[in-house]
Amino acid sequence: MRDAFNQQHTQICNSQSAAYRERRFADVEAQLTALLDAAHDDSERNCAWAELAGHHHVTALLTKDPAANQRALNALQTCVAPCPEDALNWLRLTEHFHYVSQDLNEAAQCVETTLAKALQEGNFVRQTLGARIRIALKRQDWGHSAAIAESLAEP
Fold first, then answer.
1. CA distance 102 to 28
2. Which domain of life is it from (predicted)?
3. 68 with 22, same domain?
């Protein structure tokens, strides 16, 4: 990522807490949209979309606006599209289905894709295995307890 993009990103991150306390959600979204517009490559766009997803999650929690969760999902899916091999994007999507949408079937399917990407990439394997275990436990699908045991046995 370019220095100018990193500086803009850092400034936004440093001002977010105050903006949220003052309930200036539109200001944060405008800054993040400007960051997205300033992005020059997939890495920068991915960063901006991930930040937008996080912003929408925070907005949904603080305002109880369910539409914000849908905007977060859209942003996460946009992250995955240009970089389908990126395990972190898949992990973010998995966690959205697990914790936000609480769609455990979708989370269970997504975590398997995430694990394949993580193992292939060699990154986020432990985090993905942890998510896999938490999803299996929350589903109380004891028929899939092999997935838990397998996850615990992974390196």
1. 26
2. Bacteria
3. yes
Instruction: Go through the chain and tell me how many residues it has.
Output: 155
Domain range for 38: 1-83
- Residues 88 and 54: their CA atoms lie apart, in Å, by 14
Please choose, from the candidates 86, 101, 91, 103, the residue with its C-alpha nearest in 3D space to the C-alpha of residue 56.
Answer: 101
* Separation CA 79–CA 91 (nearest Å): 11
What 3-state class would DSSP assign to 63?
A: helix
**Local structure of 141: helix, strand or coil:** coil
**Same domain, residue pair 39 and 57:** yes
Shared domain for 78 and 122, answered yes or no, is no
Q: Cβ(97)–Cβ(106) under 8 Å?
A: yes
- Nearest one of 131, 135, 38, 51 to 91, comparing CA atoms: 131
What does the pLDDT average to over 115-123? Answer: 96
User: What per-residue confidence (pLDDT) applies to 95?
Assistant: 97
Q: How far apart are CA 155 and CA 144, in angstroms?
A: 20
Residue type, 141: D
